[in-house]
Amino acid sequence: MSWDEYIDNLMAPEKNVTILIGAAICGQDGSLWAASPDMKKITPDEIKKLIGKTTSFHQCGPTVAGLKCMMLKDQYDDSKCPCLQLKSRPDADGATYNIVVGKSIQAVVVAKGTKESNAAQVTKKVYTMVDYLQSKGY
Fold first, then answer.
1. Nearest 5°: phi and psi at 55?
2. Does the keyword Hydrolase apply (predicted)?
């Protein structure tokens, strides 16, 4: 299976409800393995910062594919759900998005929810993919 198929799987609706509008799978070195069109703008520096020390995110949140974010919850040390939950700043229309980052052995999974989806829904999608990738050695 190509990495693009993993993006399709991540973005697939659940019970006819679209949860994600963007997703990317990257290497922990910052390389982009696959991404939906709006997440192709994610940079190697952004990826490296997202999986690095998150202590500064409380004062100055990270940027994800050009979207300035604030940290909601850092769960990287939680073995049940090793994810970072972020919220984007409002866009020109005032919309905000939940963005969740998960890291596996070699990969970083980044997902951007729809305006309507909540952090738990996006986190579930990311965690399911991270868990699968880890089981395959990624």
1. -60, -35
2. no
Cα 74 from Cα 68, distance rounded (Å):
17
How many residues can be counted in the chain?
Answer: 138
CA 37/CA 64 separation, integer angstroms: 14
Full residue range of the structural domain in which residue 121 is found: 3-135
- Token pair of 59, please? 């004062």
What's the distance, Cα to Cα, between the start and end of the chain in Å? 14
- pLDDT tens per residue across all 138 residues of the chain: 689 999 999 999 999 999 999 999 999 999 999 999 999 999 999 999 999 888 888 778 899 999 999 999 988 887 777 899 999 999 889 999 999 999 999 999 999 999 999 999 999 999 999 999 999 999
pTM over 0.85: yes
DSSP 8-state symbol, 17: B
Residue 8 corresponds to which tokens in the numbers above?
Answer: 């399709």
The token duo for 90 is: 């409002």
Q: How many domains does the chain have?
A: 1
Domain of 42, CATH number, reads: 3.30.450.30
